[in-house]
Amino acid sequence: MHIVVLAKVVPDYEVPAGDFELTNSRAHARYKRMMGLYDENAIESGVQLKEKYSSSLTIVSYGIKGDIQILRKAVAMGGEKLSLVVGNSDDPHIIAANLKMAIDKLEDVDLVLAGQQSADMDRGIVHGMLAEMLGFTFIPQVAKIEQDGDQWKVIQNTESGSSELKCGGKAVLSITSVPENVPRIPVVRSIFAAKKKPVDTLSEIEGDAMLIDEVLVNIPKMESVCEFLPAEDDMAETAKILLSKLREERLI
User: Which of 1, 39, 152, 235 is the most buried if burial means most Cβ atoms within 10 Å?
Assistant: First the structure.
């Protein structure tokens, strides 16, 4: 079995929204670059499947050559090689077409894993487009994957609960974050070994852009509201007030 995990290098997603600066509707170049948050969950899921089923695991990405250094972390986590399509398009359809080209060159891919959404634009649509292009089944927001005979048995987490699903054949699964796929920290030996593993760089192909014009991009404004509760007299009553307010805000 051959598993591909998609990984994208994005601007630092830990910068608070209130401090984030846009240039031409995208993150300013001064922010450091790092691997996408959900992508690391997808890599961890892929490594666990590789270890359980003795599979092959390839990391595939679309981006600039400077991303290779950052993507080596994915290889250090358990990937066997890295395939990077060199390009700088921001169009999801063009990115999906280039990822398909890279996967087609690998020829024998059975399963494609991807983070449920990127950590830069949070659009979460490239993997669905890619599945359509590849002719693979697509299941979003997957928390757990098991091979069940010739089928995949997956647990899909949504805001309203979870579902157990099965699908046969080749599939693209978008991976959500759960405690079971917290990314492992590569050991020093793996980090050094990753520097010697093969990296295939591919030239991008032309693709058809989406028929959508991006008119405006805004960063959400963060509003902080602070309320002090009386704590000097009756702590039990204060705790009741706090619980009531948390329930009103649907925080518990």
Answer: 39
Residue holding tokens 């050559």? 65
What is the Cα gyration radius of the chain?
21
Confidence band, pLDDT 50/70/90 cuts, at residue 179: very high
Q: Is 98 helix (H, G, I), strand (E, B) or coil?
A: helix
pLDDT tens for 50-91 read 999 999 999 999 999 999 999 999 999 999 999 999 999 999
SS (H, E, C) 171-195: EEEEECCCHHHCCCCCCHHHHHHHC
Stated as kind and residue range, the H or E segment containing 201 is: strand 199-203
Task: Give the span between the Cα atoms of 212 and 232, in whole angstroms.
Answer: 58
Query: Cβ distance 4 to 112 under 8 Å?
Result: yes
Q: Which domains does the chain have, with CATH numbers?
A: 2-203 (3.40.50.620)
Looking at the DSSP assignment, which residues form a beta bridge with residue 27? Answer: 22
- Average pLDDT value for residue range 114-125: 85
Tokens, residue 68: 């290779």
